[in-house]
Amino acid sequence: MTETVLRTGAEKRRFNVDMRALSPFIALIVLVIAGALINPDFLTASNLLNVVTRSAFIAIIAVGATFVIAGGGLDLSVGSMAALTAGVMILTLNNMGTGDMGTLALGMLVAIGLSAACGLANGLIVTFGRIEPFIVTLGTMGIFRSLVIWLAAGGTITMRNFELRELYRPVYFGSVFGVPYPIIAFMVVAAVGALILYRTSFGRHVVALGSNEDVARYSGVPIWRVRTLTYIIQGVCVGIAVLVYVPRLGSATPTTGLLWELQAITAVVIGGTALKGGIGRIWGTVVGAVILELVANIMVLSNFVSEFLVGAVQGAIIIIAMLVQRSVHRGR
Amino acid sequence: MKATVLKFAVAAGLMAGVATGAMAQQKSVTIGVSIPAATHGWTGGVVYHAQETAKQLEKGYPGLKVVVKTSPDGASQANALDDLTSQKVDALVVLPFNSDELTNPMREIKKRGTFVTIVDRGLKDPAIQDIYVAGNNPEFGRVAAKYFVDNLKQGNVVVLRGIPTVVDEERVTNFEKALEGSGIKVLDKQYANWNRDDAFKVMQDYLAKHPKIDAVWASDDDMALGVMEAIRQAKREDIKFVLGGAGMKDMVKKVMDGDKMVPANVSYPPSMISTALGVTAAHFYTNAPMRGTYTLNAELITKDNAKNFYFPNSPF
Predict the structure, then answer these.
(1) Under an 8 A CB cutoff, do A307 and B191 touch?
(2) Residue B216 class from Cβ within 10 Å (0-12 exposed, 13-18 middle, 19+ buried)?
(3) Is residue A40 one of the residues assigned to a domain?
(4) What are the b/e assignments for B172-202, b being 16+ CB within 10 Å?
(5) Which chain A residues contact residue B163 at CB under 8 A?
(6) How many domains does chain A have?
(7) pLDDT tens across A97-107, in order?
(8) Where in this chain does the record put each Periplasmic binding protein domain (chain B) (predicted)?
(9) What is the ipTM of this complex?
(10) Among A50, A99, B274, B312, which one is least packed by beta carbons within 10 Å?
(11) Is residue A248 situated within a structural domain?
């Protein structure tokens, strides 16, 4: 009798842990079913591929945000950083002029380099300046945004070289075996992110730092290095997202990446990462980003929500999805 | 008495030498300009045209000084107005962020005898403004609707709205009103926030939802660019054209070049700030009456007249 109870107890616990990680996926499935009921066109391959492809920017940025948030930090500057990186990348491409692979590769290097540098700046100010990351990244958010407005003189930075534009375009619109490149890109980024967070000592340091900084320090975790690195990872992720973003419309405007920081943070939280740090779930984050994009898609496809109320219904769906998740792993 | 003064002035002018233009320089007028900072395409155009026109007018009217101040939001615009009035301006040309908020500050400024010109968004109390230069948002919707009625005659149209504001509301309701009784049906309308990326997404969803769309009213050129990219990706042949609006240079260029997808545009020129500046300066330098309300037409831009709307140097 006692034995049986003990055994189910252990099984229950293991099952619980699985459910926690699985719950974003369950919310996703519920949403897909809801979408299919609302409009049969929802389940067409082209619609679903569009939605997942679109979520790539936020998903990639949110993978970086998972590191920052799991480590107890926050980065509000990612949207502005993406706009600035996209602007500088396009200006570089325009000034190089020639429509060949070399130019494109250089532009990409500039983008990754700049965004990594932006991340480094955020990280160094947070660690050495000992200022709340909220304030630091709010400040850099304004700085990056103003810089892109200044570069664009309030207008639009557009890729001028037509050949280059056509050469680069497939990076967003092309596909291998029917899977669009942006989806491949964010799967790869997520896989690498998961590897780093779950399988390396650095990843464990990030989580340790997020759950209790003092304990982490006494255990010999190099606090400043780990923390700065999370911001650099965030920067590189923004750079990768920009590489996929620029070929879509070939331009950056002062409204590029507006509120992306909020979407990225929402994706991270929907995915099961704790906003206070200490838990990081990369795959959950990716699912969170897809969920956000799906909700917007379902809103447009539905016929019964007035365009004035879209925001309210969207908000309600996200809250309900979170409640469903919670009840799933509490009910067991 | 008047004659004496005139004689004296003429004499003084002759003495100083007419060639130096000393006579005209006796007049000194300062116009302050307060406009939104270049935070998106259209306001970027406003800033560009304000600065260009300021230079031209200073050249044309001796003794005229134009001070241009840009502000990123409504609150800082109120501060900028304080700064400008402390510099003793004779006139203020203002494109308000929010005309409700600015009505009281402007009333105070007016009481001190400053000449007030308001652009685009009129004040709550029209008695304050000496000159009001207005863009015509209802007309903007009607002109667009008329284009669909004349050129499409029959068919299904999807609409992309801007940011929920009075401007957007006036445009869209008048668009729909003007379509009443025609063979054109609005299949769908959604907000895309005058933003390229949002318009791209909304258009992708429209394309998934509606198997046959005849034309798109993007209602703005930034949104039109996102829409066209989505159509190109979906390789849909049923859409005959996309009508944007506001006259962005890239789009006007397409109209000029005879692009089939972009046969026309509807103007809502950021250069209306230039109109306001010109009329205000003329108030001080000519005897012609200038006070009043000027409503600019929302004009249909087609291949024939596109070159009048094309400003290659403007950022917008």
Answers:
(1) yes
(2) buried
(3) no
(4) bebbeebbeebebebebbbbbbbbbbbbbbb
(5) none
(6) 1
(7) 777 888 899 99
(8) 31-259
(9) 0.76
(10) B312
(11) yes
User: How many Cβ atoms sit within 10 Å of the Cβ of residue A303?
Assistant: 9
| Residue B92 CB contacts under 8 Å (≥ 6 apart), including other chains | B31, B32, B33, B34, B81, B84, B85, B106, B109, B114, B115, B116, B117
| Calpha distance B66→A209 (Å, rounded) | 57
Amino acid B102: pLDDT: 82
The confidence band for A329, taking pLDDT boundaries of 50, 70 and 90, is low
Instruction: Say how far residue B10 (Cα) sits from the centre of its chain.
Output: 42
- For residue A320, give how far its alpha carbon lies from the nearest alpha carbon of chain B (Å): 23
Of B38, B39, B200, which is closest to A249 when you measure between CB atoms? B200
B300-301 and B265-266 strand pairing: antiparallel
| Unique residue bearing structure tokens 């304000």 | B50
B17, pLDDT greater than 80: no
Q: With an 8 Å Cβ cutoff, is B44 touching chain A? A: yes
Which residues, at least 6 apart from A132, have a Cβ–Cβ distance to it below 8 Å? none
Residue A249 is nearest to which of B208, B226, B314, comparing CB atoms? B226
Structure confidence by residue, pLDDT tens digits, B120-137: 887 778 888 899 998 888
User: How far is it, in rounded angstroms, from Cα B282 to Cα B16?
Assistant: 26
Q: What is the mean pLDDT of residues A85-95?
A: 93
Q: Which residue is closest to A251 within chain B, CA to CA?
A: B196
Q: Determine the average pLDDT of the residues in B181-202.
A: 91
Closest CA to A266 of A27, A37, A87: A27
Q: Residue A312: which of A295, A329, A327, A326 has the closest Cα?
A: A295
At position B269, the amino acid (one-letter code) is P
Domains, chain B, ranges and CATH? 2-135+270-285 (3.40.50.2300), 137-266 (3.40.50.2300)
CA angle centred on A61, ends A57 and A64, rounded to 5°: 155
Q: How far apart are CA B213 and CA B235, in angstroms?
A: 13
Is B76 in CB contact (< 8 Å) with chain A? Answer: no
Q: Please report which residue ranges of B153-248 form alpha helices under DSSP H.
A: 166-179, 196-209, 221-234
Task: Looking at the complex, report in whole angstroms how far the Cα of residue A252 sits from the nearest Cα belonging to chain B.
Answer: 9
3 state DSSP class of A48? helix
> In terms of Cα–Cα distance, which of A313, A316, A299, A330 is closest to A51?
A299
Query: Closest residue of A to B158, CA-based?
Result: A300
Determine whether B2 is exposed, middle or buried from the number of CB atoms within 10 Å of its CB (0-12, 13-18, 19+). exposed
Whole-number pLDDT of residue A19: 66
The whole-angstrom distance between B8's CA and the closest CA on chain A is 49
Alpha-carbon span B225 to B242, nearest angstrom? 9
At B156, is the secondary structure helix, strand, or coil?
strand
Q: What is the pTM of this model?
A: 0.79
In angstroms, rounded to a whole number, what is the distance separating the alpha carbons of residues A20 and A326? 8
Between the CA of residue B294 and those of B141, B166, B300, what are the distances in Å? 19, 19, 19
Predicted confidence (pLDDT) at residue B94 exceeds the cutoff of 70: yes
Domain coverage including residue A241: 57-279
Q: Considering the domain boundaries, does residue A41 fall inside one?
A: no
Per-residue pLDDT reduced to its tens digit, B19-47: 444 444 467 889 999 988 876 778 888 88
